[in-house]
Amino acid sequence: MERSTIVRVHEGLHARPATRFVKLAKAFESDVELVKDGKAVSAKSSVKLMLLAVKENQEVTVRANGADAIEAIEALIGYLENPKAGLDDGEAHAPANDAGKEAAPESQSAPAAPAEANGLRGVAASEGVAIGPAFAHFPPDIAGQGRMLQADEIAGEIDRFRAAVAAVQARMDRALAQDSLSAGDRGIVAALRDIAADDSLTGEAEKAIKGGNDAVSAMITAASTIAADFSAVDDHYLNARADDVHAVGRQICLVLLGQDDVSLENISQGAILIADDIGAWDLARAPLKRIGGVVCGHGGATSHIAIIARSHGIPAVLGLGDRINALRTAQEVALDGNTGQVIIDPDAATCADFAGRVEAAAKERAGLAAFKTVTPKLADGKVIEVAANIGSLEEIEAAQEAGAMGVGLFRTELLFMRHMHLPSEDMQAETYAALAKAFAPYPVIVRTLDIGGDKPIAGIEFPEEENPFLGWRGIRMCLDRPDIFKRQLRALLRAAVHGNIKVMLPMVSDLGEVRQTRVLVDECAAELQAGGVPHATFDLGVMIETPAAVLIAPALAKEVAFFSIGTNDLTQYIMAADRLNPTVAKLNDVTNPAVMSAIELTARAGVAAGIMVGMCGEAAGRPDLIPAFLEMGLTELSMSPASIQRAKKTIMAMAAGE
Ligand code: PEP
Ligand code: MG
Question: pLDDT tens digits for 218-276?
C-alpha cells in the first residue's frame, strides 16, 4: 500500500531529518520505500534517502509492504508533514564537514595573491604573527592489499570488516558522549556516525568482499562509489557529504590496517600546523593551546578553521591551494596572519625579525590586558563604545575575553552559508537571542543578510552578473525576496525581547530602501502580534558604505536611529578599486583624502541629526586613525576582538591628551 504527501519537514530530508526518518522506518517490520519523481529507495537507508534529495514542499510517496504497513505509512507520513521533524536538537543544523570550505568567500579582507620571492601569500584568516617548527599534517593515502581473496578467506574478512565498522561507530559514540563537545562539533560527529551506521556504505563494501576483494580495498571502492553519487547531485550541501563518506571510509580502513591517523596530539609547543585541509572537528579537539599557527591549502576567512583559529588567538593563513605542497618538507615556518604572508625555512634575519615581532606582540598583549575592563571616555566624559565584529556564536567568548562592549557588527552571512538550506526563523531567532543575552545590556547590532552573486548560498538563485559587487546584493536582494528578508526580520523582533538588539541594513544607496524595510518590519510585528508570539521593537540603522549613502546622509539620518560606517566597502566604492583585487590594492586605502572626507561628511550629518555614528569597517580598529574618527564625532567603533584592547588604550591616551 502507499500514500502520497507534500513534504513539510523544514529544509527537507537532509542529514539529520533523513536519519530520523530511517530510524522511524526501521521500527516497522514492513519493507518501506520512499518514492520521488518515479524513483524508489529503501526508507531504511539514510544514505539512499539523502541521495534522493527530497526537499521541502516536494511531493513524495511512502510505500509499505508487510504486516504493519498501515502503521508504518501513518507514522512516516506524519513525520514528513511535520515541519519541525528532525529539528529538535542542536545537531540538526550542523553539516558534517567544514561548510565554510565550500561556501565561504575567498577572503573578506585580504585576498590570496601570487607567490612572493621569499615565500607564499594566502588568505589572512586570523591575525597575529608566528614562527616555529613545522608540523606537517598530511595523512597518507590508504591502499588495499591488491590481491583477490580465496573463497575460504571471505567469511573471516567479513567478520573483520564488521568489527572495524563497530569499532568506528563506538569511537564516534564515545566522542558524542563527551560533555566538552560543542554543539557544532557534536553535529559534525553525529552526521559522520550516521554514515558509518548506514547499510548503503557497509553493504556496498560487504558486496565487494564477497566478490573476493580484501576489506580495505572493498571499503575504498564502496566509499568512492557512494561519494561519487553525492558529488553528482545538484545540491552543494549534498556534494559536501562526499567528503564525509570518504572520511568515514578512511576511519574504517585505518582500524582494519591497525593504524591510527596522524594525530595532532603530538604537536609540539608553538609548532605551526601545516595541512592541505583539516576538518573543523579535528582542529577543535586538537591541543589548541600548543598550536603556534595554522597554514592550510583549503579554507577562507570565514571557514570554520578560521573561526576556531580566531577565537583561540592562533594566527592563520589559509587558502594556499596546491602551493601548500611547498611546505610539506619545511622545517620551520613563519607566518603573518595580518597580511597572509608565509615564509618557508626563513633565513636568520627573517627569523630574528619574526621572533622580535612575536615577542613584541606578546609584550603588547600583556600590557593591553589591563584595558579589558576599561570603559573608554573622552576628556569631556563621552563614552566611546568599543564593540566586536563577529560572525558566529563561537566567537562570543573571544569577544567577551577581549572586553567588547557589545557587538557592533554581527555578520549574518555565515549563518546562511553554513547550512544546506536557508536557516529557519526559529533557528535565527535562537541565534540572535543568544547573542543579545550574551552581551546584555550592551547593544548587539545585527546586520541583515549581506550577500550577492560573489558568495552564493544554497536556497537563493543569483543571476549571472558582470559586476556582482555592483549588483543584486545586500538590501537590494533582501527587498526583492521578502520571503527571506521577513523571516530574518521576524527572528530579530523575537530576539529583541532578550536584550538590546539593533538592526542595520547593508549596501543602502536610496532612502526608499529604508522605508520599504520599515513597512516589512511593521508587517512582521503585526504577524507576530496576531500569532501571540513575544517580540519587541528594535532600533533600525544603516551601514554607510556606498557613495550614494554618504551623499544622502543628512536625509538618511532623519529616518534611522544610527549610522555605522563600513569602510571596507566605502573605500572600494569611493576609490572605484575592487577590495579583492591586489593589483589595485594601493588605491584601496581608507586614508585617501577622498575616503576620509566621505567619513567626515557622514559623521557631520549624523551628529547634526543627533543620531549615533559608529564604524564597523576594518579602519575602526586602527590606532593611527581612531583619534581622527573620534574628533569627527564617532562614538562607537567595532572591530575584530583582537583589536579591542589596543583601541581602548588609544582612546584613553587621547583623552589624557597624550
Ligand atoms: C564594510 O564594508 O566595511 C563592512 C564592515 O562590511 P563587510 O566587510 O562585511 O562588507
Ligand atoms: Mg560591506
Answer: 999 999 998 888 878 766 556 657 767 887 888 899 899 988 766 788 899 999 999 98
Query: In testing the pocket of ligand 1, which one of 568, 570, 622, 640 has its CB within 8 Å of the most ligand atoms?
Result: 568
Residue 247 is placed in which grid cell?
572520511
Compute, in angstroms, the gap from residue 539 CA to the centroid of ligand 2.
20
Contact status, residue 488 vs residue 412, Cβ threshold 8 Å: yes
The interaxial angle of helices 183-196 and 154-177, nearest 10 deg, is: 160
Residue whose C-alpha cell is 567528503 = 243
With a 6 A CB cut-off, is 572 part of the ligand 1 pocket?
Answer: no
| Active-site residue, selected from the candidate residues 14, 93, 304, 498 | 304
Is 351 designated active site?
A: no
Atom 1 of ligand 1: nearest residue by CA position: 566
Ligand 1: does its nearest atom lie under 6 Å from the Cβ of 391?
no
Question: Which atom of ligand 1 is found nearest the CA of 506?
Answer: 6
Q: What is the DSSP string of 325-338?
A: GGGTT-SEEEEETT
**Is the Cβ–Cβ distance between 254 and 260 less than 8 Å?**
yes
Which ligand is located closest to the Cα atom of residue 108? 1
C-alpha distance from residue 473 to each of 360, 408, 460, 461, 467 (Å): 41, 21, 11, 12, 11
3-class secondary structure, 115: coil
Q: Which residues contact 265 (CB under 8 A, 6 or more apart)?
A: 286, 287
Whether 304 is catalytic is: yes
The whole model's pTM is what? 0.64
DSSP 278-310: --HHHHHTS-GGGEEEEEESS--TTSHHHHHHH
- Binding site membership of 413 for ligand 1 (Cβ less than 6 Å): no
* 38: CB partners within 8 A, 6+ apart: none
Residues 6 or more apart whose CB falls under 8 angstroms from that of 496 comprise 436, 535, 536, 537, 538
Q: How many CA atoms lie within 13 A of 526 on its CB side?
A: 6
- Tell me, what's the pLDDT at 528? 98
